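Need the bound structure for adenosine-5'-triphosphate, inputs here:
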Amino acid sequence: MIFESRTLLGLDVGSHSAKMVDLAKVRGGYELKALGLGMLPAECIVDKDIMDSETVMDTIKSLRENLKIRPRGTATAISGHSVIVKKAELPIMTEAELEQTLMIEAEQYIPFDINDVYLDSFILGESAERSDMMDILLVASKKEMVDDYASAIRNAGLKPMVMDVDVFALETMYEVNYPDAPESLIALVDIGASMININIIKECIPVFARDISMGGRQLTERIQREFGVSYERAENIKTGADIVGIDLERVNYIFKMASETYVQEIRRTLDFFLSTMVNENIERIYLSGGSARLPGLTSMLEKQTEIPVEVINPFNNITWDDKVFDSEYIAYIAPQMAVAIGLALRKAEDKW
Ligand SMILES: Nc1ncnc2c1ncn2[C@@H]1O[C@H](COP(=O)(O)OP(=O)(O)OP(=O)(O)O)[C@@H](O)[C@H]1O
Ligand SMILES: [Mg+2]
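Answer from helper R.:
Posting the output first, comments after.
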């Protein structure tokens, strides 16, 4: 075949940084073509809302130029308070019929004015309880937020073609990288700067998704207050890049407190999910996001949930040329790139 199916450019605009990934489909898998991360200043994106669209646009544009990416189709994602993902039960119908009735059916499930959202749905299959009903996954995203992200991307010289949701991008990334995983029920947990995204997947189908408004940002603010330093310095203290004159015992104590808070929230969400299921066990938790690097978090989560925890490797099934990319850097940046890789794996013709 001369024309191989081309993937989209993956762009994850988080509140801490924008991540860009370009992959090429090659025989037997994918190859990394470009990868970059551009930090955003403190108040640029707050609670996932773009406060400073100029800076977001400039950051995406510089990433694109530095990576020598020509204008092209881009997949991006949103999450948080402007997106609702809900399971619903409807009478069995075709996709075309569902499209016709979606607005009316969705109204009872969505806490927003139905005219203010973009709606989407995925048929999951026949309902477990009744054979004349089917389960669908309903996704409603506030138009205002989708349009804000789309216009920043457009103004940066790219073409927004897929608007995904962080939790689903994580799932795409997982499916490509762990096709032979023996577990049937797993949780993907991404801990970023302002959000913890959780997606529970059973036999390749998302059965529960939730975003918790919490993340590394609060920890950065705590370090700022504790040591009287700027946002940028606090970020460098976190990563260990600039610790001159800093009492590391205090930093470690703050890290431990933050880990405890995340673990408590994740545990509460998983317990809630399990309380709705009969005889089910989550067999593994895969962590991603920059805050997954918090020292001791993995073992604390493992101990308190009694579930094996692993930091996910979004490059598990992706190759790269080690003359172009430094393998040590790839290993370091991997957890932070999970959503961007899931997006870079999307194809233009995918439904979203
Ligand atoms: N070594 C580290 N130790 C602790 N925290 C870290 C480390 N490295 C990065 N972080 C934190 O990870 C967070 C950034 O992660 P990520 O890039 O996944 O967030 P984001 O996608 O921009 O945010 P969000 O999706 O929540 O809007 C920041 O809060 C950053 O301080
Ligand atoms: Mg993120």
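Comments: The chain has a mean pLDDT of 94. The pocket of adenosine-5'-triphosphate (ligand 1) is lined by residues 14-17, 192-195, 215-217, 220, 235, 238-239, 289-291, 293-294, 336 (CB under 6 Å).
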